[in-house]
Amino acid sequence: MAAGWTRIAHQTLGSAGTLTASWSGSYRHLKVLLDLRDAVNGNAVCFRFNDDSAQSYGYRRRNFEQNQSSGESAGTGTFINSGLDLYNSEHTVELNIINPVGNYHKLMYGHITGEKSVHTGEPNSREFCGKWKGGNQIVKITCKLEFAVNIPSGSKITVFGADDAPTTPVYPNLTNGTIFEESDTGKHYMFDGTSAWNEM
């Protein structure tokens, strides 16, 4: 479980281009949030890590758009393909990544939603998951439309990082003398201001 999130990277595009977030430091958990403007084209939102353009990505996605003949698909390639087109709609994305240190696959799952579907005019969304077999811990994320078309101006990426929750107890920030009553036993305890509850 992640222990408190810290914002580690942010970019707002001043002109159409590639959304890129990079940082220093080691974070086992990453949360990526994107606010994407309308690209007025049919290219899907895609991700790449640490500038790796090799065949080291795999993904699966599920579409929740109405009247679509195929709801689920999978693939491999040189990037994670969310499968949802940035077309006549603004989109939001949340991507969660498990990012262990060492030569391990990096696993991720995400959600992307749009204001309206190109097919139905109704709100649409897609879930996707994937893995990157690059090995090194992720310290850079690149987002582009199928790596051929620029992301529109005004789009934003924000990355938060966290480590595992500590295994040692985290004591509450309570003053000395705080009283607690157990609801099931009726026993009363007083906090010593540091780490102990003493029965009264």
Can you walk through the features of this model?
The chain is mostly beta strands and 200 residues long. The chain folds into two domains: 6-162; 169-200, no CATH class. Helices cover 0% and strands 46% of the residues. The chain has no helices and 15 strands. The chain has strands at 6-12, 19-22, 29-36, 44-49, 57-63, 72-77, 80-85, 91-98, 106-114, 124-132, 140-145, 156-162, 179-181, 188-191, 197-199. The strands form three sheets. It has an eight-stranded antiparallel beta sheet with strand order 1-12-3-8-9-10-5-6, with no helix packed on it. A hairpin with an 8-residue loop joins strand 5 (57-63) and strand 6. The protein is elongated.
Concise summary:
By secondary structure, the protein is mainly beta. It is 0% helix and 46% strand. It has two domains: 6-162; 169-200, no CATH class.
Order of helices and strands: EEEEEEEEEEEEEEE
Strands of the largest sheet, in order across it? 1-12-3-8-9-10-5-6
Uncertain residue ranges: none
Give the tally of β-strands.
15
**Distance from first to last alpha carbon:** 34 Å
Overall helicity = under 10%
Q: Give the helix/strand class.
A: mainly beta
By DSSP (H or I, 4+ residues per run), the number of helices equals 0
Task: Report the sheet-strand fraction.
Answer: over 45%
- How many whole angstroms does the radius of gyration measure? 22 Å
Major pleated sheet: 8 strands, antiparallel
Mean pLDDT: 85
Domains (count): 2
Q: Which term fits the overall shape?
A: elongated
